[in-house]
Amino acid sequence: MNKFDHLEVTVNRYDPDIIGITESWCTPSVPDTELQLINYELFRHDRDSENKGGGVLLHVKSKLKPQETTFTSPFKDQVWCKIADLHTGVCYRSINYSIVGPDGAHVDK
């Protein structure tokens, strides 16, 4: 949230079609209106645990008509959408074992 003004300036300068953000640190107490960018659809997944951090955001140009979709993945912080025949998303791979647990499937050996 503390960098949202910088994000808006960057978006206005480069005009990207898709923006993926990890470590949003958002909680359900943060309304979508606080995260919305003009002319973009917002997709979000807040971390569903007491641990700080995590969460992902996906902004896609409205003119691309994105539709939210889901995939099964070992990553808890993820959000996906479909744009025509293209699936795109954002995943955050936490290194915190207390978050990913024994089924994290990505613990380095």
Question: What report would you give on this structure?
Answer:
This protein is an alpha+beta fold and 109 residues long. It has a single domain, classed as Endonuclease/exonuclease/phosphatase (Deoxyribonuclease I, Chain A, 4-Layer Sandwich), CATH 3.60.10.10. The chain contains two helices and six strands; from the N terminus they run αββββββα. The strands form two sheets. It has a three-stranded antiparallel β-sheet with strand order 1-3-2, with no helix packed on it. A three-stranded antiparallel β-sheet has the order 4-5-6, with no helix packed on it. Strand 4 and strand 5 form a beta hairpin. It is globular and about 35 Å long.
Unreliable parts: none
Roughly how many Å apart are the termini?
Answer: 35 Å
Query: What level of helicity do the residues show?
Result: 10-25%
The beta-strand count equals 6
Shape: globular
Which key terms come to mind for this protein?
single chain, 109 residues, alpha+beta, Deoxyribonuclease I, Chain A, three-stranded antiparallel β-sheet, 6 strands
